Amino acid sequence: MNPPTLGPSSPRSGQVIVVTGPPGAGKSTVAALLADHLTPSVHLHSDDFWSCIKQGGVPPYLPEADRQNQVVLRVLVSAAFGYAGGGYHVVYDGVVGPWFIDLFRAAAEEHAVPLNYVVLRPDQDTTMERATGRTGDALTDPEPIRSMHARFRDMGAYEANVLDSSSLTAGVTAASILQSLARGAYLLGPDDR
After folding, report:
1. Is 30 among the domain residues?
2. How far is residue 98's CA from residue 20's CA, in Å, rounded to a whole number?
3. CATH no. for residue 42?
4. Which pLDDT value is given to residue 10?
């Protein structure tokens, strides 16, 4: 499969592809693979932005983190659409449920940049197995993982943006997303709320 590119005859603006889902869904791995197949591309790994907070940070899954999460997401949205405005395919990976997608939608409209929304939602058992088996500073505590999985269970108007990746490898998931992106399957329009 030839990767999509932005060449000299392409519009100056790139696109933003939000890859989201609960912890352990495979967002970072799949986003990295997508960025490897898009030219030119940027991979915005949202966890990096939370780790920039050195003093006074609150775990983002706690209710008292709401203000902090709003600040960090606004910074991420600004970065994503800044790169996209410069012609890059921006692959953002992080937790962006329907409760946060309007920040991205508003920026997409303001900058006239296409916005794609991909929700990876493996079943709960697969999510728990993947998330609790991670190493490093990744979230492995079962309770917040279960809670976040539940928040992605009913996507309402965004259910068409869900990909059940329970039995898919990261490579197959990325290939499926690339094919769907080419068809415009994950593109959010102004009336898709």
Report:
1. yes
2. 10
3. 3.40.50.300
4. 45
pLDDT digits (tens, 9 = 90+) for 78-132: 999 999 999 999 999 999 999 899 999 999 999 999 999 999 999 988 887 877 7
Average of per-residue pLDDT across 131-144: 72
Asked whether the whole model's pTM tops 0.85, one would answer yes
For the chain, the domain total comes to 1
Strands (E), the chain: 15-20, 41-45, 89-93, 115-120, 162-163, 187-188
Q: Say what the alpha-carbon torsion angle 120, 106, 89, 4 is, to the nearest 10 degrees.
A: 80
Q: What angle do CA 109, 111, 116 make, to 5 degrees?
A: 60
- Domain holding 19, by residue range, is 15-188
Residue 60 lies in a domain: yes
**Is 158 a member of any domain?**
yes
Residues shown for the chain: 193
CA dihedral angle for residue 91, residue 97, residue 99, residue 104, rounded to 10 degrees: 10
Residues sharing a CB contact under 8 Å with residue 67, sequence separation 6 or more, in sequence order = none
Would you say residue 6 lies in a domain?
no
